[in-house]
Structure formats: structure tokens, C-alpha cells
Amino acid sequence: MCPLQPVTAVTSKHRVLCIGDMTADVLASPVPKLPQPGEVSMTDRIVFCPGGNALNAAIALRRLGESVRFVGSLGDDAFGDLLMAQLDTLGLDLRDVRREPGCATPTTLVYRAQGEDRRYIGALGAAARFTGESIAPETIPEDGVLLAAGYLKLLAWNDDALAELFRCARQRRCQVVLNVCLPCEGHVGAERCLRLLPQVDAFVLNEDEARVLTGKSEPLAQANGLRSAGARRVIVTRGTQGLYAQDESGEVEMGAFTVPLVDPSGCGDCFNAGLIAGLLRRGDLLATLRLASAVGALAATALGCTNGVPSLAEVERFLRENEVEYRTTRFR
What we know:
The chain is an alpha/beta fold.
């Protein structure tokens, strides 16, 4: 198992609602090269950790000191029991996690060769039944943030229910953050995502996802297209090249912080956690993106999707001691 450090007890009133995918991750530390058919490659360590785009962000937010309520689906199997036992130490509000009878817990194998990006093999299991239809509007925090993550990967998600949830969030002055995850096979259904954007305050996606959704290859054109579709703020993450962000006030191009790389799994999800922490603090776009980038970078310093994320105080110290290149442009 992947040891998780307990965090301080959750407060009774949550400021963040995270909904979406939660998985049991089985991660291998890098191997010199991937095995050929019939071969076995040995590695230093294989661990079992919580994972999933939405759950990773929720855990990282707890490490940053935020109170978080989570909605997702698990199976009624041993992996689900093990995952819940780990999560119980973190102080997340898990009352809305559904254990689907007769279903396997969503599981992902994560592995990579040294010097290469990660490879994933996933089984949706109980997540294939997640529709989001049972989420009560009362769970949305007033003046908080709602994160929907793993969208497009969870094929049963009811778009009408999600759109209504987003509308309710805006009525409660709750900012809406949407993060997609595109499966590598099959029809993406870009129009599904684009219909939701008028209700979205911050749309976060990587450059490959932005290319698929817009048909454009440059971040500026991608952001223009997604903002034209209704998103108030678009953030396109670019891996080691940093990010491009745009809202009505202007644009930010930012590089990436340099850290000792151990495992990049979950960096994007932890970036989302840092972004949400910045939104809750009502910082400007640049300050919010610096915080998000720092959290995402620090996540890569330990094996597992969230184990590298420290406390908010430690992130702030990292920001004082480290610089990142950026360029801002104000729109008239």
C-alpha cells in the first residue's frame, strides 16, 4: 500500500464539492525499458494508492487545508474496502460515495519507462454507472467551488443533470471548475462538453484535449474558441512547457517550476487543487496560476498521485524561494 499522511480533521462546513471519478491506482516506479511480450521487468516499488481525476484533486485540497465533500462510485469489492480505509484517514466528507452492488472498483494500472511519459490501463467498473443524477443542490457550497472532473471518461454522466447542477452552483455564488479526461478510443463527443461551457467559470484541460475539442493547435486559438463557446476562463496545461490561460481581463503564459521528478502521475489533478485553493482566496489570475503550478509541480516529487503535495504553508514557502517565468497581457 501507499502510505497516506493523515491530515487535520475536516470542518463541518465544506468549501469545495468534488464530483467525478475515483479509482484504485496500482503504480510501478519507472523501469529501464518496458518488457517485450513474455518478459518480466523488475522495478523498485509497486504501490496501491487512491486515484482518479476528481479524487486526486480532493485529496490534494485536503492537504492544502480545505474542507472537501466528495461524490463518486466504488465497487463492493476488496479494492473498494482498501480504498475507503485509506481515505478515512484524510478527513474527506465521503457520505455521498456510493458502493455499487456487484460491481468492481474502478482501477488503473500506471507504469512508465525511464525518460518516457506514463502509460495507463483502466477499468471503469462501478464508475460506468456514475450518472451524477443523485447529487442534491444542497451539497453545493455557497461562495465555494464545485469541481467536476473525469468528465467524458465517465460515459454514463447525465449531461442535463450536470448542467442543472452547474446552474444551481452559480445561483449559490459557487464557482464551477470543469476538467475533462478524453479516452484514447472511440468518439469524444466534443459537442457534449461545449454545451456545458456557458455555466463554467474555469475550464481546465491539457493541450491535446484542447486540440481535440477545438481542432486548433495553438493555445491562443484553443482558448479563444473555448471562451467563444462560453467558458469564462480557459486554462490549457502544457506539461513541462507550462500553461496558457485566458479570461476577459487578459492572458498569461507561464513556464513550469523545476523540481526533482519522481512520478508525474496526478500532477494535473493537483494543479486543479492549487487552482481551486487560489480561487477560494480570491487572488488575481497570475497569483492563482502560480499557486496551481507550484502544487502541480510538487506533486511530482513523490511516488503516487498526491503524496508529494505538502501543506499550504510549505507551498507558499516554495513560491517565495522559487521563480517561474511568465508573460501577461492585458486586454483592452
